[in-house]
Amino acid sequence: MQCLFCKVDNDKVINSRTSIDGLSIKRRRECLGCGRRYTTYERIEESPLRVVKKDGTRESFDRRKILKGLEKACEKRPISTDTLENIVNEIEREIYNQFDREVTTNFIGSLVMQKLKILDAVAYVRFASVYREFKDISEFIDELKPLMTNEKKKKKDGSNSSRSISLQH
């Protein structure tokens, strides 16, 4: 493995862990050239899954795009990177369990929205506003109403009013 920092191709593995879902191995490495540490992930290479976009075009599935969308939605929210990685792992596992060759962006977006709705209301609304392409404020308000009703019920019941839920395993 080539070091990200000094480009030397000589390192040692310090620690290896199987991911929670069992689909990858996380390896902590130390460069023998510069002494810096970095993390790599090892995954099974599967048959290429194609994503069918709204306009009918197709592209290769890329889990990094899901992570990037989650990061944007959760920006400045109290949500850890590990939690977002776990969500992406769950989504990826569900996609590969249900589809062999092609999956629609609508299906992926729906999965992301389900996870965000549980995790954090603000992140959910941020993602929904982009994903659903709200045309006006009334569509946005329609999306907020059920969330506000749930929040009022939580407060009335004396439940914890915290809006974020950790998905740590």
Automatic annotation (TrEMBL):
Keywords: ATP-binding, DNA-binding, Metal-binding, Nucleotide-binding, Repressor, Transcription, Transcription regulation, Zinc, Zinc-finger
Necessary cofactors: Zn(2+)
Pfam short name (any one): Zn_ribbon_NrdR
Residues covered by the ATP-cone domain: 49-139
Function: Negatively regulates transcription of bacterial ribonucleotide reductase nrd genes and operons by binding to NrdR-boxes.
Similarity-based family: Belongs to the NrdR family.
NCBIfam families the UniProt entry points to: transcriptional regulator NrdR
PANTHER family in the record: TRANSCRIPTIONAL REPRESSOR NRDR
Record-given protein name: Transcriptional repressor NrdR
